[in-house]
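LysR family transcriptional regulator
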Amino acid sequence: MTEWPDLAALELLVGVDDHGSLGAAARAADIAQPNASRSLRRLERQLGAGLVRRGRAGSSLTPEGTVVAHWAREALADVRGLLDAAGALRVERHAELTVAASMTVAEHLIPRWLGRFRAVRDDVQIQLQVHNSMQVCDAVADGRVHVGFVEGPTVPDGLHSVEVARDRLVVVVAPEHPWVRRRRPVTVAELAATPLVVREQGSGTRRTLDLALEEYDRPAPLLELGSGAAVRTSVLSGVGPAVLSTLAVADHLTSGELRSIDVEGLDLARTLRAVWRPPRALAGPAGELVRMIVRTRVP
């Protein structure tokens, strides 16, 4: 079997061609010159050809050395590519994925999504941050997270997005609320004129509601709270009506603890989105997560 040439010797040969002397090539490779000379002589014996012409003025390549140096450059480039690929695999094995999710997504969807993702990528260390939708978009735009999930009706300029789920907001009240006994639906004007328990400014739920009622003058909220769970608890306690995601109140509607109120002419359907910074093609574990969600989501 032919003995493989020493890569360091090939690098020295290319260095002689680049720098015009063996001494300069040895310094560039951080090899003592006597060791460099022995390495090149060993390469010449191995290949059966004189590669370097040595003289008082320095060293230069022979015609045979020039040919070998040409192929050595390509071989060394391939080896560097191999090392880069191996390094990428090493990084991938210890990859980190930082995700930011708005409250509704974090409470009702992201645990299932991340659980499925971990089943196929248990090598990825995942960190989840929970904010309102505006804060999620800020974290994505600033590069503090790899991908965000939001429930707002719009996405800021400069961010890419894709639909990952659909949701609907509903008006909910406690069973004792007067609206439960009404025979006719509440009108949009009546809803707009009623003080509500609402999420804080910047949340996707609040933004969707405000856009739907932007034509009306509205009273101050009964309460302004920082999570859907807190809003739901307030409604359960009889504080007043609220507009919440069906994801947040489905079980309570089924049990009768909360009642859904029809509002005539009001459509509060919304799209939940993954958002990220350019480029458009989301790569790495974040891209894998989003593609998995899109591929398996229910229409």
